[in-house]
Amino acid sequence: MARFSIPNCVTCLRLVCWVGLELSFLSARGEEFRRPNIVFIFTDDHAIQSIGAYGSKINKTPHIDRLAREGGIFLNSFCGNSICGPSRASVLTGKHSHKNGFYTNSGGAEFDGTQMTFPKLLQEAGYSTALVGKWHLKSNPTGFDYWEVVPGQGSYYNPDFYTSTGQDKMQRYEGYITDITTDLGLQWLEGRDQDKPFLLMCQQKAPHRTWAPNLKHLYNYDDAPVPEPDSLFDDWTGRSQTLAGNAMSIRDHLIYQWDMKFQERVPIANDFESRLREPERPRMTPKQQAVWDAYYEPRNAAFLASPPAGVDLVRWKYQRYIKNYLRCIDSVDENVGRILSYLDENGLSENTIVIYSSDQGFYLGEHGWYDKRWMYEESLRMPFLIRWPEKIQPGTRFDQLLQNIDYAPTLLEAVGLEVPEEIQGASILPILEDPDTDDWRKYLYYHYYEHLTEHGVPRHEGVRGERFKLINFYSNDGLELIDLKTDPNELRDVSGVREYAGVLEEMKTQLKRLRDKYDLPSH
Ligand code: SGN
Ligand code: CA
Fold first, then answer.
1. Is residue 237 in a domain?
2. CB distance 105 to ligand 1 below 6 Å
3. Which of 302, 60, 412, 353 is nearest to 200 (CA)?
4. What is the CATH number of the domain that holds 83?
5. Using the 8-state DSSP alphabet, how is residue 264 labeled?
6. Which domain holds residue 23?
7. Which atom of ligand 1 is nearest to the CA of 259?
8. N or C: which end of the chain has fewer CB within 10 A?
9. CB atoms within 10 A of CB 261
10. Do the Cβ atoms of 50 and 61 come closer than 8 Å?
11. Residues 277 and 375 in one domain
12. What is the per-residue pLDDT across 362-405, written as a single tens digit (0 to 9) for each?
């Protein structure tokens, strides 16, 4: 397969010369450039601690790992705002929240679908484009020939989907969401216009809260406890006082009749929990309910017969949480396998870029938490695995600091399109050409805008370098400096330690530089 250089590619786009059904065209140098297809697999809240290729100690993901084996893995990949809608808006536009206008999940704002997005530019350039699964940007998707998405967070069981005909004309599909989303994507691929290259965005709800597994995976991980993270019993001292105000602790904020699959009020539950009902079971068919109950009910009865207390109760809750979360990932992984098999069986693997990523990371018990939002590593990181046989040597490991604003420029450049000026991210094509290159950003900018909403996290911004991280809790109590080398679990703020005075100044300078570079308004 001929390689292409970007300037030539841009030229060649202007001299489009269709050659048969292959959609090949000739560059100025006379080389053939076959525009690659793109399959973008995007999950919701999938933390890298639960991906084999990132060194998971708690589960296996053989199909996702295949992408790292046959392509590349970015070991340092991050979001710019660790919450669903905003991360998705940055992926689509290549811009931070303050430039694409989608700052928070909470509040009524809709994503402005009239603005530039990479799917739109691909569609205009002759790509067939499709989006299935979770969207969560409130306004209807734009830039897709076909889209079929779930309302809001969607449901795991017998989910409803809608299209441009609107949410009052929803289609309910019987089955499990991860399978159904994949089915819709594969059906579209099967019936697509074979004369065009394609972009398929397959966006899974899983493994989002309330972590309801597929029935066939209910018994996975049942034999032994899942290892606990080092900081499961973090007491949040030695850092910003705002940490203690969190509402995402496994100890206090997992809900028996919601997250933990109890049908009746548990005597030791908080009062407010009595108003809630587990959301998935009522959607199930009687047959599905029977399988569900056969798993959970005896285990719930054993818990109620002698409920553990203190640290043992935290440990019990962690096991219930993490096992359900991992079971959801088992289904994700299986469905990644289905997509990869489809590409193999249809001769598409060679000329298709396959990406696996997730809208942000997640706490799998680290700091005693579930959920995301904070600028600490587990929720700041996004998985990013990419297979592209033409450009990436199998098994390549990339160390550079990648961010979700880089996805759009990368994919535009990959198909030979010019990257619009307004895009703030950078294409990773130079890194793919030279994986050891040092010519790349050394610091990245982060900004979370929700303030003390559902999980009690204050708004904050910060900068992350290769070793140090500075967090600015600007509406509360100021700066926090973390030394990731000596303190990888992020348990200690060293901003007041004399030896770090120089580092603190440098990080403040970097924060200011990035605020200027990205044109941030003042707080
Ligand atoms: C829901 C969840 C929260 C979660 C947000 C945002 N509650 O509100 O736990 O933080 O979504 O998630 S739930 O009990 O209704 O599941 S995000 O992935 O969309 O950003
Ligand atoms: Ca999410």
1. yes
2. yes
3. 353
4. 3.40.720.10
5. S
6. 1-34
7. 14
8. C
9. 23
10. yes
11. no
12. 999 999 999 999 999 999 999 999 999 999 999 999 999 999 99
